[in-house]
Amino acid sequence: MADPLLSVRNLRVNFRLDKHTTFEAVKGVSFDIPRNATVALVGESGSGKSVTSLSILGLLPKENASVLPGSEILYGGRNLVALDALELRKLRGADISMIFQEPMTSLNPVFTVGFQLGEVLRLHMGLSPGEARKRAIALLDEVGIPDPKYKINAFPSQMSGGQQQRVMIAMAIACEPKLLIADEPTTALDVTIQQQILDLIAALQQRRQMSVLFITHDLAVVGDIADHIVVMRDGKIREQGPAKGVFEDPHDAYTKALLQCRPRLDRRPVRLPVIEDFMDGGAHAMNLNERKRGIQASDPIILEVRNLGKDFYTREGVFGRRKFEAVKNVSFKLPKGKTLGLVGESGSGKTTVGLTLMRLHEASSGEALFEGRDILAMNSREFMAYKRRIQIIFQNPYASLNPRFIIGQILTEPMLIHGIGSSAQERVSLAFEMLAKVGLPEVSFYKYPHEFSGGQRQRIAIARCLTLKPDILICDESVSALDVSVQAQVLNLLQDLQDEFHLSYIFISHDLAVVKYISDQVMVMNQGEIVEIADSDEIYRHPQQPYTKKLLSSIPKGWHHGA
Asked: What residues have CB less than 8 Å from 351, skipping those under 6 apart?
């Protein structure tokens, strides 16, 4: 076997939490990155995969992180752990580059895209400003940015998320590195954009004969592009090997669990398996019962939306303003106790529909009949009685909980506002009851949001909605930021709550496998309009519109998806 491009040997990384406490985030990890190959480093949040990649580039925070003696990262005959800052800086960008997860925080908002690309080329390759500009345009063209001669003068904020990520990739490949490290580069992107970025990285890897270390929490994503897979958990490697072998015959219980947790397209089990089902040593008893989905003509309708429209206006010139129709003539019915899945790419208007129904945006036209009454036409006093009955769970559990309140206050304050519970004691009891419902211990009541993981915070957000005993829950990308195993837990929870309380859901997401699992009916939106609406099994089996077919063809297949 040829020498690998880079070898990690017995890597151990410590973080200092306070004067007396240290935490070992990476515990003796060893793996190789072969030349001209893609290695996927897979694991959940906290598994140590990003810490491992930052160690390769020497980007760990100096003040509290240290690579322990005996660790080796061998590249070109040198141990990168032993290099000084200047030597590492020469290596970064030129030989080894990195694409980070969040392009908006990696690109400088006050400089144009062309300036930032040109800076890389001037510093590392010594190009003149004119040469750098020409090369930057060629790079933007190579990563598939339309009209690169014009876009080179754009600021990051003038580009979509997918285009920003392409700019990051252009910067990373500018100096023709031997190794590209991609840290969760598609997590925040739509399914179609995700597929484009994956295809782009695969094409660049082939064309430029470079190696790629692709870091992700979702095994399905790397099914099509990885040659080798390394699975990490709690700072250790659980399993590694050729991708085909890991997918078709995983040996470790944790790898099996990661493969099974994601909703499949060919089956809809009554509950999704979670990591714990596989890790207790016993064989996991798969629940083979299928959950029936779909809508009957006899189902009672709780919400009927007719010709909903929402316009936004932007300033143009000194006095002018331009109208932008975010939602156009949207009509649908939501039956009681059922789930309507709402899918489409960013900018399709799906979140605007949810926020307008909550009256967080004022509708421009149309009506929304809740049990026969138009909630969009009510004054704020009349709407107050309905506000409690239609609740929203937002995408980001970090931003939607007040960091200064303990969980108890977060749960009891809405009850106080809406007059639920006759005394403080009764409200506290109800809060405890809701915490138990979402699978959190009573002690959570006295903690602050920062003491919880992302999945736990999302459960708290769900518990807060439940305290108001709503009839309709709007879930706005409420599982998209979660690890696949945590996502399975939250989806099971939403399902249990629907079974118990007969809740109706509007489930907004760009993850089509998740939407198929949880929805009775799916509504596809594009550019503010409904493209197609049908029962969820029907729309996946026989999509009618080209746009729907395009969305479905972008679902990451992995090797374990059925249909």
From this structure: 476, 477, 508
